[in-house]
Design brief:
Length: 500
């Protein structure tokens, strides 16, 4: 419900949430509706802790700690020391931020300062063994070691973490960071070394990128000692827009002269800029692919909405989805399926866009990034995968629990070569899809095996009969993992399973 939550909330489950409402009372969400729990009291609450419907604690606008007993608000702590946040263990065991920035403890009778003053703002967290964590004035999260504040995190952005944090361990802290490029607050995760975007696979600084890549390369080299690593390069653009084909050709040739061979060249293409420059996109793609093949370089394509504009206030997920699918069809019609495809998302309330699809998108869950990937792959593979049933050797009667050998031969009548690399090709059960009636649901091609168009493949494998007598369906079809089942299925055989 819009306009309900203000300042703080407590979540026990997605159908059991307490929050401060815009009327400054505590409300409860049951998964369907909001209902008001409290009334009266000091009028404004900045933070709450909930034990039950009849035991709620909150900081009032008078900086006192109040208790809801199920019928009315009572003053629990009259001394006006509390600021912004508090941690509640019992009515005689409370920690809070004081007005002077120090951390205080309430023992049921008096407040006692236990840290230095002027150090903490916005939020604190106290563990069950009474370790105290807080956001410093510089936006860094600190731990109190009984004598001084010890920094636990580095800074994030130029403003540090903002407003609040959730603590699980010193290498797992969630908070709110500030993206200076996008001028937006973003969820971030502290992993013990670096702040990461909690909602995306983004790196926060160059040092982190270098360390992550060094660790990754080290691990790959240890497991695959014969692997060869090559340099990567990014083409500098002379100005905004799509580089000319001549610019790309010259740049690739220069890299080759330097001894840098690029196995893949990824094209992050702007159709909007191409239109401004009167570039014929299909012709550009065809010539680019032909040129790269001379150097044995694969052409990689980014899939996103390269038409825009993102800045439109009415721009929605539907616009993104439809424009990206249009780009997929354009690429496929021009050059077929690229060597590599990367799906890139700015769906939803991306900090790099100004649109708000949740406000102007009534289409529900149809135009999601997940569906774009699924349907995008289907579009790329449409009419490319095809198979024809040739023959099978399957018994009509077996004993319960019997292990026996079957063989199925399929012909590749499509335009793609079957292999077990990437989104691998295999034989899968149908009737019902993916069933394990016969002990297995999929049969892989062997490593390195390739079945070219017009070639046949005989799958010979063992299955095991069910342990209960009856008649069971035995039917299979070719599939490409994570993409689609395709082609002519095998004729269904109702195998009779009998008592031994």
């Amino acid at each position: 419900n819009k306009g309900t939550i203000k300042d703080d909330f407590e979540i026990f489950a997605e159908n059991n949430i307490y929050a401060i409402g815009t009327d400054n009372q505590v409300w409860h969400w049951d998964g369907t509706n909001w209902s008001r729990v409290t009334n009266g009291g000091p009028g404004v609450f900045e933070a709450i802790k909930v034990v039950s419907n009849s035991q709620i604690y909150g900081i009032g606008k008078d900086r006192k700690l109040w208790k809801w007993d199920g019928t009315k608000w009572l003053t629990l702590v009259s001394a006006g020391l509390i600021k912004d946040d508090f941690e509640f263990f019992a009515e005689n065991d409370i920690y809070s931020i004081g007005m002077n920035g120090g951390i205080y403890h309430w023992d049921g009778k008096t407040w006692k300062i236990i840290t230095t003053k002027g150090a903490v703002k916005d939020a604190i967290y106290v563990t069950s063994d009474k370790k105290i964590y807080g956001i410093g004035l510089n936006g860094i999260i600190y731990r109190w070691d009984k004598n001084s504040w010890i920094p636990i995190t580095s800074n994030v952005g130029t403003e540090g973490v903002k407003d609040d944090f959730e603590f699980f361990a010193e290498n797992k802290i969630y908070s709110i960071g500030f993206n200076n490029i996008a001028s937006a607050s973003l969820p971030v995760l502290w992993d013990g070394k670096y702040w990461l975007r909690a909602d995306a696979c983004n790196f926060s600084n160059p040092a982190q990128v270098a360390n992550e890549l060094a660790d990754l390369i080290k691990g790959i080299k240890a497991k695959y000692p014969n692997i060869i690593f090559t340099e990567t390069a990014s083409m500098p653009l002379s100005g905004p827009g799509v580089p000319t084909l001549e610019e790309l050709k010259n740049w690739v040739a220069e890299r080759e002269k330097e001894g840098i061979h690029l196995p893949i060249l990824y094209l992050d293409y702007s159709r909007a800029r191409a239109l401004q420059q009167n570039i014929n996109t299909p012709a550009f793609l065809k010539e680019m692919k032909s040129f790269l093949e001379k150097y044995k370089i694969g052409l990689g394509i980014f899939v996103h909405d390269n038409l825009g504009p993102f800045s439109s206030p009415t721009y929605s997920n539907k616009d993104f989805y439809n424009n990206a699918m249009e780009w997929i069809r354009l690429v496929k019609n021009a050059i077929g399926v690229p060597r590599h495809i990367l799906f890139q998302s700015v769906l939803g309330n991306s900090p790099f866009t100004t649109f708000a699809p949740d406000k102007n998108l009534p289409e529900g869950e149809l135009y999601t990034f997940t569906n774009l990937i699924i349907n995008g792959w289907k579009e790329f593979n449409k009419d490319l995968n095809s198979a024809k049933f040739v023959s099978q050797s399957v018994p009509s009667k077996v004993a319960v629990g019997q292990t026996f050998t079957v063989s199925i031969t399929m012909k590749n009548t499509g335009k793609t070569t079957w292999s077990n690399q990437g989104a691998g090709y295999k034989l899968g059960t149908i009737n019902l899809p993916g069933n394990l009636t016969w002990g297995i649901g999929k049969v892989n091609l062997t490593n390195g095996e390739e079945i070219a168009p017009e070639e046949t493949k005989t799958f010979t494998f063992q299955v095991k009969a069910p342990n209960i007598p009856g008649r069971y369906n035995f039917q299979w079809q070719m599939l490409q993992e994570l993409v689609e089942a395709f082609g002519e299925p095998t004729p269904n055989v109702k195998i009779e399973v009998v008592s031994s």
